[in-house]
Every structure is written in C-alpha cells, then in structure tokens.
Task: inverse folding
C-alpha cells in the first residue's frame, strides 16, 4: 500500500468515527482576538460544545446532526464572536456564551434563525441535487 493510500485509509477511519457524511449543518464559531477577547471566545465555544452534546446534535445522525468547528478568523473582525451556519449560510454577530443556548434551540433545533442577531446570509447551493 502506498503512503498516500495508507493516509487515505487512516483519514477514512477518522471520518467514520466523527460521523462525517452524516451531518446536515456545520457551525463555525470565530473566536479570533480581532473580533472578541480570548476569554469571551473560549467561553462561547465551551457552551456551544456543551449545548450540542446535551441535545444530541454533535457526533449524531439524523436531520438535526450538526458538526462544529472553532476558527481563528472568519475575516469579519468586528462584533464577535461571529458564528456562521452552513449550508444555509446564516451569519450571526455577538455570539457570546449567554446567547449560545438560545441559538442552539431556536436555529438548530427549531429551524428558526434569530433575526435580531443575523447580519448576513450566504446560502450554499444544494450539491446533492446536481
């Protein structure tokens, strides 16, 4: 087996454990120091992880399955922590730890974005339909 094939096999096993391919949404939370303090960003990230796990949305299957990623910069650099949900492309501002539980319930569980916190939209095209 070539080194490339061995790497692909290893990554495929990791992807299987993480249920990559089963998610319907991907939440990116920017905790970069340009848009929020490190303490505020870290606190928001910890609450997001806890909420997703508590509601069985993280490392799960089904229509509400959601993957999460913390990032250092989404290039907005103001009003953070910034959060974006794909594939619908809903961009949120000010996603501090105290806002995360409401976001998880209303947007991810109930499917209703919190319009007062949304500042932009950029939905991705449905790749499965092609």
Result:
């Amino acid at each position: 087996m070539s080194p490339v094939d061995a790497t692909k096999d290893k990554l495929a096993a990791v992807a299987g454990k993480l249920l990559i391919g089963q998610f319907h949404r991907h939440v990116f939370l920017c905790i970069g120091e340009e848009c929020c303090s490190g303490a505020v960003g870290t606190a928001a990230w910890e609450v997001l992880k806890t909420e997703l796990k508590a509601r069985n949305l993280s490392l799960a299957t089904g229509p509400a399955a959601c993957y999460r990623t913390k990032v250092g910069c989404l290039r907005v650099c103001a009003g953070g922590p910034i959060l974006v949900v794909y594939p619908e492309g809903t961009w949120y501002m000010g996603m501090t730890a105290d806002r995360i539980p409401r976001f998880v319930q209303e947007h991810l569980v109930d499917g209703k974005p919190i319009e007062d916190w949304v500042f932009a939209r950029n939905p991705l095209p449905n790749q499965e339909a092609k």
Notes: Residues 38-54 form the longest helix (17 residues). The chain has a mean pLDDT of 91. The chain has three helices and five strands. The helical segments are 3-17, 38-54, 100-109.
